[in-house]
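Following up on my earlier thread - several people asked me to post the actual chain instead of describing it. Fair enough. Here it is, all 300 residues.
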Amino acid sequence: MGSSLGLMHVLQAAGHSVQVLLPNAPASFLHWMPGYAHAKAHDTDPAGAAAAIANCEVLFCLDFNRLDRVEKMEELLKSAPIKVLIDHHREPDTFDIMFSDITACATCQMVVDVVEGMGWAGHISSDAATCLYTGIMTDSGSFRFGSTTPHTHRVAAGLMERGAVPDIIHSAVLDDNSVDRLRLLGFALAERLVVYPEMETAIITLSIADQKRFNFAPGDAEGLVNYGLSIRGIRLAAFFMERSDRVKVSLRSKGNLPADRICAEHFKGGGHRNAAGGHAFDPLQQVVDRFLFVLPPYLK
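Reply from S.P.:
Thanks for posting it. Predicted structure:
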């Protein structure tokens, strides 16, 4: 959301007509972002998304490395005349124009670099800066992940100088919990967290029944996997969330443990070495069992 809306504001300031398209509506804690109201989500407006792609001259693909990552929008994206990738995930597909940097902590950081490289820094308004700072803050774990560099802080400082206000952004994203979400968090940690000390691994699962019990809304499970990784002695945390048609898999790891390889080789996904995701179509418990079965070689 940060990279898409941030680039939208910059392109509009440069005189272009821009439409932000999303595979699905994001969590409510992102709806405050400047420009969000004008974005179209494919899951709620498929005709509008299709029309926008049919009429576009250039399609920017932000913060995803393969067209299949947008699932039901994949075929639509294939029809775009020129596709430009700006992304920091490993092993990207081939696009017409590519900005790919797996060392960047956030795609938003890359957007700033590209915009400044074009001589368009003056088009980064307060709204654009707010969106781009939000993406850098969230993707860097509030500037604590190993991918955070001195350049990251310089980019963030520049965005502050253009109008981004850190405490307002932090509060809008991280201090926007519903009562149901907090109760779901407590339930997940008390009833669905399983620790495997001998494997230095923690697992949290949420079934559809669990989600219904706490009136689950998109975004309510955001960050849940990180609690497992915060346990002393744990190197790998896994979160499995059952959906109507699949099980979503989220992994977080420490050090050289390759979360991205586990997801790519067994769960049709990918990501970063220490943060990755994927999915599977088997029942929830079978997916967990398969994960535990394939895990030992990666732990070594």
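The first helix runs from residue 2 to 13. That should answer part of your original question.
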